[in-house]
Amino acid sequence: MGRKDFTAIAVGVIALGLGAALQFVSLHAAAGAQTPLHTAGVLVRWIGVLSLCWFGIRRKSLTPWIFVAMVAGAELGFDAPHVATQLKVFSDIFLRLIKTIVAPLILATLVVGIAGHGDIKSVGRMGVKALVYFEVVTTLALAVGLIAINVTKAGVGLTFPANAAASAAAITHPAAQHWNDVLLHMFPENLAKSIADGQILQVAVFAIIFAIALATLSEEKRAPVMRLCESLAEVMFRFTNVVMFFAPIGVGAAMAYTVGGMGLGVLVNLGKLLLTLYGALAIFAVAVLLPAALSFRVPVARFIAAVAEPATIAFATATSEAALPRAMEQMEALGVPRRIVAFVIPAGYSFNLDGSTLYLAVASIFVAQAAGVHLSIGQQLVMMATLVLTSKGVAGVPRATLVVLLATAATFNLPEAPIFVILGIDALMDMARTMVNVVGNCLASVVVAKWEGQFGLEAVDPVVAEGVEA
Questions:
Q1: What's the pLDDT score for residue 117?
Q2: Please, is 156 exposed, middle or buried when counting C-beta atoms within 10 Å of its C-beta (0-12, 13-18, 19+)?
Q3: Domains of the chain listed by start with CATH number
Q4: Which of 86, 145, 232, 257 is the most exposed place for a label (fewest CB within 10 A)?
């Protein structure tokens, strides 16, 4: 990064900080009325945004532009919420385009990776290693969340807002999930329906069985299907490269809609819970993910650079699916073989939701604290064991964490009102936990590749390399 780039970032950060300070002084000096200080604060902050835009133009890369779009979207949502809330359509367009990629990409890459590999036993060995890693890491995520919420006691003394009951009435109560429901949910009854419903794990299960069957055929009959799947994978990676040019607009619109619709005042009452979650996720990254990376000799600096773009997309959109195609491309470019990427990352979307699992630990104990219900350490451990099971297999379910949280509250006879209070800041919490989900799954693919001794052994596909360098 050159001196001009550094200057642009420094000017942007200083201007945003100064503008925020002017806004703070203005609000306290005039009780929220429009003042010259308020106007000056807005102008200074937008100078900062423009300075960051100049940095993005100079870098000519998608990652800086996505970051700049996040900042600009947040500023627009704060300054003009009525305008910002109308921009959701651009975020929805981006998400729709991404969702069209996910199922065909997973289907094609898994089939090629397994059927083209020729060694079905190694696929089974890789699956066992991935599941062992998933279970260890998600259990540690629960432990970090449990400790964090017991230290901060964010739910103690919470006063429920008057609209909590109205919010509760608007929510559909989900049924508790049992182990047989989770197991059944993994298997597709109709491939087209699974693709239409966005059931990633079901598509992956179909692809694995299809690939095993394909591998047993003679070369003459297998070759045409393999060529079709290889071509489909290449097209979908190219499709991803095209769609990603729209990512800054989609991400900026998502951030503008979130800030414009929620505002910042909601953090006054629930800021402690929000800080608890963000702090716990940071501790989890440093105390669990980083040691895991170092233990398997993952090139940490290169990994952080590769995961920055999909993590940013996940944070801004609060949707793991939006980051999945780019995450797969980045991990393949980093050195993870395509067959491992195509197997581990989709499986991780159901079995390795590190951020969501940690959030569930924090939120469930928060509900008990807010309701004044004392849970012993033994009861909390039983609740965590329940969450280990109920948090699996919910990928693709709308508001999946809410489903699990409400089911857990019903199981342990906890009131629902605190859950609906949490919904007020759930969007901000969802952004952080989704980002950690994506980073955790990307790391899992590298760990499994290292564990298998396959990291960095295959040449990167030119289409993937082209997309990553864009």
A1: 58
A2: exposed
A3: 118-181+264-469 (1.10.3860.10)
A4: 86
